Amino acid sequence: MAADRIIIIYPGTMNLREIRLTRLLRPLAVIIPLAIAGNIIYILAASEPQSLKSLGNYDIRYLILSVVLVLIPWVTHGGRVYLWNRAFGKDMRPSDALKTVAANDIGSAITPTAVGGGYVKLGFLVRYGFSPGEATLVTFLGSIEDGAFFAIAIPLAVILTRAWTNSTARAAFHNLISQWPLLLIAGAGVLAAYSILKRIKARAGRRTEPEASAKDQGFFIGIKMKLRAYRHEFLAALKFAARNGKRTFGLCVFLSGIGWSCRYGAISALVAGLGYKADPVLFFLLQWIVFTTMTLIPTPGAVGGAEMSFAIVFGKVVNPGLVPILTGAWRFITFYLIVGLGALYLAAAGRGSGKKREFLDKASVPEEVKA
Predict the structure, then answer these.
(1) Rounded distance between C-alpha atoms, residue 176 and residue 173, angstroms
(2) What's the distance, CA 153 to chain centroid?
């Protein structure tokens, strides 16, 4: 395989395609600058002049802290990938794990949030010695680890903040619910975008037989087939973790908690820098609401919609005149900065040497999982 090429795997189907690394990075050259320019225009147009002037008094230490906090999840995610690499007996280097995470973030930036960057992560794992079945398990285990953490963290946050009586939380929920038409339109946009992409793929003649079959049977039946395929992989992942990776799974859940807490903690640092009182636990809960809502946004990386969701949920946290500034700063630090740094790191470090293997080995799920 050429040094500038990687393997992309389409989740749920095990369909593989070889593409150039530059093809993965190229969309960012358009998406990121336009998104940042849009944020700057939004800040300048929507912020009050007095609010912009007050930025001269911003405590830069909190800005630095917020940047450090959003970089930690990159390390913890890489650590999780590396731990499963050890559990599966592979010889991936720590730097390879960081490249995989960077590629995952880039994939998330060029696709809708509901799609995510898992298909890119799968391809990188295969390149670094995992079989397609093993790569699928590791990717699904990552989602399970996150889910296990949030299953504990969210109810705990609700209880600690007494969200049912907390005025800030109630205002955030009210604002979000009051915007249900926008959320409904966004959800319809996700379905429309998915349908359009399927049609484009069909016309380009790049569909595989399972995809063509799903298309012929109808859109929603196709989704059902995909979910059914994921269900078997999901159960296989649980079986593997239960039998062979309990300690690794526990460590990864712990690292997931650190990573998400730091990512969601960045907003507390930004708010504190503006001179407002920050409640890290409450802001953690509100951030989870924002990120959950972002899955309904059909644009690549939830561009535009993420800012809208954040402004709706956090609109009562600071002075209304500062909301556009806080929204732009939050989005830049928690997304554009991370994706940009990841792209630079991936471009500078390269894909790295991977093991040459038979990529079309679809029966390469570990024996323990097949049982």
Answers:
(1) 5
(2) 18
